[in-house]
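A student in our group prepared the protein record below, which I am reviewing. What it holds is a sequence and that sequence's fold in C-alpha cell form. My question to you is simply how this chain folds and whether the C-alpha cells agree. Do not assume that whoever made the record got everything right. I have pasted the whole thing underneath without changing anything:
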Amino acid sequence: MANILFINPVIREQDLPRHVPYGIALLAAICIEKGHQVQVFDQNAWRAGDDTVRQVLMADKWDVIGLGGITTAYGSIKNIVKLARECSPSSLIILGGGILTSLSREMMGFLPEVDVGALGEGFVTLPEILDMVDTGKREWWKIDGTISRGEGGELILSKQRGLIQNLDSLPYPAWDLFPLEEIYFPNSSAAFSVEGMTSKRRLDLNMSYGCSLICRYCYHLGIAGDMRYETEENGKVNVQFDMPGKYDRVIRYHSPEYVVNLVKYAYDKYQIDFISFLDENLMTMDAYSKRTWLKDICRLWGEAGLVPTCVREGKPHDENCRGVHWGGTSHASLTNLEIMKVMRAAGCTYLNYGYESFSSNILKSIGKGATPENNVRSFFWTLEAGIRPIPNQMLGFPLDDFQSLRDSMDAWKRLGIVVKPHFTTPYPGCEWFTQYRNRILDQYDNDLEAFILDLGDATKITAIISENFNAVELLGLRELMMSFDYKRIDDYEKIWREAHHISEGAPSTVCKNKTNAVTKKT
C-alpha cells in the first residue's frame, strides 16, 4: 500500500484560512478506506514558509505526493511541486482539481515536476493510480481521466473519466487530518448572518455537484458533464470547454439521508454549530427533485435533533443556543417562498444570490436565466421567509455600459442595499475564457502563465473582457456606483462619448449588441 502525502496549497492569501478543503478531505478518506497510509500537510491553514514545507517533504519516504485546487492556487502549487521534486525526487507527484482540468496540457508544461494529472473527478481515478503504484508499473495512459508523459516527453491524454452517479457511495470527509481546533474552528465566523457571525465551530459540506445554468463566466468542467475530448487535425486530443450550443448539464446530489446523517456525525463528533453548504446552487437540486429534496432534508434535520434551540423555542439567538444553523446558495429564478419558510424553520439563516446585474440586457448576455424582476422578487421573498439574502454582483461584463450601471444603482435604492461588485474574471474553464483568450493574452504579452499567476478571487482586477470600459474606468465607476453618484457618472459619460465618437442619445456602447464580438482560441 502506498504512503501518501496530500498538500493543500495556499488560496486567498489575503484572507484567513476558513474552509477545510472538501475535495482533499474526501480523497484522503477514500485512500484510507483502500488501506493506504495517508498524511496531510495543510499549507493553506498553517501558511508556513518553504523551510517547513521542506521538513514535511523530507519527514518520510512518500510514494505519492498529491495536490490540487482551483486556478487561483497556481502560484502556491508551482512552488510546492518544485520543492517536492527537490526534497523527494523518487516520489510520484500527482496534480488534480480544476487547475489541471481547465488547462491540462498547459499546466503539464508549466509544471514539469508533475508526473501524472487527474482530470475531472478524481474519486475513482486516484485509487486506480495508486493501484498501479502498488504494482510498480507506470502505464498511466491505461487509466481513464489522466494526462501523463510518454517516454519521449510527449503528453498522453487517456480516455475521458465518467462522473460517478451515486454520490452516497462516497465516505465522509477525513476531517481529522486537518487542524480543526487550531485553525478552522477559530476562523468559523462568517459575515452572512448573526448566527454565522457568532459561530464558533463551523464546517462546510457539499451536498451536490453541478448546476442547471449556463453562466458564461462560470467553471463547469468535470463536475457538470461539460468536459469534452475532441481530436484536432494533427491527431492531438484536447479537452474542450463550454461553447454555445454544446451545453450539457449533469445534475447529481446526495440523498437527504446521507446529508443529515453526515451533519449529525459532525455534530456528535465535533460539536459543530454551523454548516455552510458549498453547493453551486441548492435550488437547482430542489427543482430537479420536484421540490422534495430540501423539504426532506429539513424534515430529517428536525428528526435528528439538529434544529437550533433558538428556532425551536422562538427565542433570539445567543451563546446558549444548541443545534446546527446553516446557509447556502440560491438562484433568483428558482427561488420558492414555501420551501424557504421550511428551510428557515430548520435553521437556515442565509442564502447567497448571484444577482450579477439588474440590467435585463446583461442578464440575457450571460445566460444566467434570471431577470431583474426575478432578482428583486427573490430578495423580498427571502426576507419574508426570515432568511438573510446575500446579494452578489459583478462589473465588467462584455456588454456593461452606463445604462446597466444605472439599472443596478436604481435597484439598490429600491432594495435599500449597496453592493460592492466583484470584477468579471474570465477564469480558465469558463466559456468566456475560451472566447476571449486572444484578448486576455494581449493584456499579458501573450504569456498565459502570467495571467494565471495574476488571477485573484475576483476582488482584484485582472484581464478585462469589457467591450466598453478599461480597468481604470471600471475601478472608478464602481466607486461612483457605491456612493450613488449619478452626477459624476453622467458627467463622465459625456467625456466617454466624445472620446469614442458616440453621439448623445445613441446606445452607450462601443460594440452595440455584439454579444459575440469575441476572438477565437488559437
Observations:
- Confidence is low (pLDDT under 50) at residues 512-522.
- Residues 256-270 form the longest helix (15 residues).
- Residues 155 and 234 are 14 Å apart (CA to CA).
